[in-house]
Amino acid sequence: MAAERADSGDGRSLLGAIKPYCEKESIAAFMLGISSGFPYAMIGATLTTRLAQDGIEKSTVTAFTLAFLVYNLKIFWAWIPDGVRLPILGRLGQRVSWMIVCGILVAAAVINLALVDPQADIAWAATSAVLVGAAGATFDIVIDAYRIETLKPYQLGTGSGMSQYGWRIGSAGAGALALVVAARMGWSAAYMACAALVLPAVLTAVILGEPERRQVVREKRAMAEVWLSIAGPFIEFFRREGAFLVLLFILVHKIGDTLANLTFRLLFDDLGFSNDEIALYDVGVGFWAYLIGVFIGGIAYAKLGLKRSVLIALILMGVSNLSFAGLAAAGHSNLGMAASIGFENIASGYGGVVVVAYFSALCDLRFTASQYALISAGASVVGRFLTGTTAGRLIDAMGYVNFYLLTTVAALPGIVLFWWMSKAGLVDAAMGTAGEVEDPATAGG
User: Fold this and answer.
1) Is the pTM of this model over 0.85?
2) Which long-range contacts (CB under 8 A, 24 or more apart) does 57-60 make?
């Protein structure tokens, strides 16, 4: 039985907290994050800007965020990378072989979206965005499993931080590259240039090989065993004490944040910001602010422990939406945009580290891909659905200021629920084997 959990809060020195960032597992997490982040940008803020500049109406633009729902459906096929061995490439290992295949699929889907003309065929543009989402979601299944199985328990905080660094570089880098190239060579060339960002994850997997902590239940051949590979991860998770409350928290904690984040580019376009201004403030300032937030998150996770650091993150992410209500009220202000983007990204970077570390610790190492797919899919499904179906109409009906005030209020249920779960001991009770430390010495204790 494990001696302690990931929530150690062991008060290690500052130097000791920084050291894990330089370890190979954390560097690997950074490279994986780069490739994980860029497909999101291709169908997120970048596609929103592309559609807005093509004159597509708001309700249609926000409807495109439904493409993200494919990420939330990945729980239905996450068992495949866990249990299906690929021919020929399978000799390289389960995770490595699937990483290569998924990287090829993502690159192909992004190039396909590059060739679409939304003004000529909006339906095919939507279909192409969904294909990028499906390929990116499958890529994420393998990336998340590889990251969790590669990181040791004491590295979950810093490893998640490095993953978030990489994710931000991948998403922001792809977004900035797309904006700059699109202004000079068109959107098709911009999307094609970004397709190369699949390489960091693929090369990392090929160089490092299979994760040492990967655990296999058994070979799955008979139909009964195939069913077990599909149902087993969910059965194991829901047998834990407090599992349903943990799932409820996963579903509601990010509603406000998701609603706000997927509409920022619409606000910027309506306030008259140019592509260069968006690239400088949203991508540039946001990039560095996010990195600062990620670094703070890694230190906070090590110094404060899981529960306190997560609660602080939830509060910061909720309050950050207020800054965009202020920007909407102020109008076109470069200083206002820089301030709101800076605060939001520091909060998101901090939250990304500690919340991802918590979600990673919830996984059982026998079912890493399937369980993390369940967790990560649930984390944003409600917000993405609401954004795709109602956000555009809400903005038209109530204006940006009231909309962002509403997203702030929507963050309250997640804050209250996690506080109560911490007090009741359910955060610890529902932890998985990925968050268990067998030897306290390995955790820096």
Assistant:
1) no
2) 58/266, 58/392, 58/395, 58/396, 59/392, 59/393, 59/396, 60/122
